[in-house]
Amino acid sequence: MANTLFDKIWDAHVVQLVEDGPTQLYIDRLYCHEVTSPQAFEGLRARGIKCFRPENIYCMPDHNTPTHDQDKPIEDPVSKTQVDTLAKNAADFGLTHFGMMHPKNGIIHVVGPERGLSLPGMTIVCGDSHTSTHGAMGAVAFGIGTSEVEMVLASQCILQQKPKSMRITINGTLGKGVTAKDLALYIMSKMSTSGATGYFVEYAGTAVQCLSMEGRLTLCNLSIEMGARGGFVAPDETTFAYIRGREYAPKGEDWDKAVAYWKTLQSGPDAIFDREISFEAADIEPMVTYGTNPGMGMGITQRIPDVTEIPEASRASYQKSLNYMGFSAGDGLIGKPVDYVFCGSCTNGRIEDFRAFASIVKGRKKADRVTCWLVPGSWMVAEQIKAEGLDRIFEEAGFTVRQPGCSACLAMNDDKIPSGKLSVSTSNRNFEGRQGPGARTVLASPLVAAAAAVTGVITDPRTLM
């Protein structure tokens, strides 16, 4: 029996099997941001030890960085302390640090792939749940806790129970206006936010193979939102073409050797997964969420399910969620007035996402009622926006491109949605208060977000394409 790809990568990184315990797993790349690393570094100081392999560790702030005036001191004292502490820790322990205004700064899960730091066959961890993003490169990538960050800093290893394996196959061709974000939201709407708990997911099928790397990064980013430990796509020619020539990618003979190895990173034709699930791309339309978890999603032309369609044990929380959002069972979301639109985050902050947004707003004007934040996921993306002239399209339509950061994905910086306001967001979570205390969030693709930005209401983007 051939191994799954997950087995191949995992088994190649096992340092020691602990009897009746976790596996000691070697980690190729550790990313550190400012929120989950301070206590880990303090733990090293308390023990008087250094980082074991500092060349494998990269640090950058993203959660707390403002998206304007980054050349000035951060005004919020908590954010400033966290960002400054990361800079000091990186300096003290001899680690690579891409600080604010550094040309390589941005959201860690955007910078890693675009710089060629995240590569096929790697094990990658970060103190952030959306580390699953890097799985799009054909890597085993997952989020870890602060105590585990300390463990990797000290030993370049981690103790982990091996997850089960799942393959989700999506065959067919995605329809007009349907993006990787819609694909992910559709899967979550069918599987719920706990449907993949305890599994590492391999995404497969013709619909996945046809996704760009940016699309695969979006899909893998959202794996955690259905409970998975991580998600990945087997590397192929699309992967190799994306990596080739990037700053930290192998060069020359090393490139040829790397590609030869990467081509072996496939699940065997007779590999057996612990669970197999299949969907058809033709069943998916542009998606929106209507509740307070990412699994509460539906096609944009559909209506919110009645409470009688919900399992009895979940009905109270379901109704609570609708009450928070100000929606009712049977409602359609098309035509609902929108206050804020956010395009960005580690889910949809890449150049392809801003191309999609621009394709809708070109020749149109931002709706007066809407406040819109366009936030590139990195300085590289910001430069691409300028180089392609997208910034001029945005300016002519009444939009402004902000500076890189996590921004309105979460309420840890200045970009907060006011209480009661409705936001259409390309980010990854719509929990109560996620974008600000009392904020109401509809998750959607950049196309749906752009359509809302120019019409002032939730709009099927296919009507504007």
Could you characterize what this model shows?
With 465 residues, the protein is of the alpha/beta class. It has two domains: 5-275, Aconitase, domain 3 (2-Layer Sandwich); 286-463, Aconitase, domain 3. The chain contains 16 helices and 18 strands. It has helices at 5-12, 38-47, 77-92, 108-114, 146-155, 180-191, 206-209, 213-221, 237-243, 252-262, 315-325, 345-348, 351-361, 379-387, 390-397, 446-455; strands at residues 14-17, 23-26, 29-32, 57-59, 96-97, 123-126, 140-143, 157-160, 164-171, 199-204, 230-233, 275-280, 287-289, 297-299, 340-343, 371-374, 422-425, 440-443. The protein has a five-stranded parallel beta sheet with strand order 5-4-3-6-7. Strands 11-10-9-12 form a four-stranded parallel beta sheet. It has a four-stranded parallel beta sheet with strand order 16-15-17-18, covered by helices on one side. Helix 2 (38-47) packs across helix 5. The longest helix is centred in the first third of the chain and has 16 residues, at 77-92. The radius of gyration is 21 Å and the shape is globular.
What is the topological layout?
Blueprint: H1 5-12, E1 14-17, E2 23-26, E3 29-32, H2 38-47, E4 57-59, H3 77-92, E5 96-97, H4 108-114, E6 123-126, E7 140-143, H5 146-155, E8 157-160, E9 164-171, H6 180-191, E10 199-204, H7 206-209, H8 213-221, E11 230-233, H9 237-243, H10 252-262, E12 275-280, E13 287-289, E14 297-299, H11 315-325, E15 340-343, H12 345-348, H13 351-361, E16 371-374, H14 379-387, H15 390-397, E17 422-425, E18 440-443, H16 446-455
Parallel strand pairs: 3-4, 3-6, 4-5, 6-7, 9-10, 9-12, 10-11, 15-16, 15-17, 17-18
Antiparallel strand pairs: 1-2, 2-8, 13-14
Helix pairs in contact: 2-5, 6-8, 13-15, 13-16
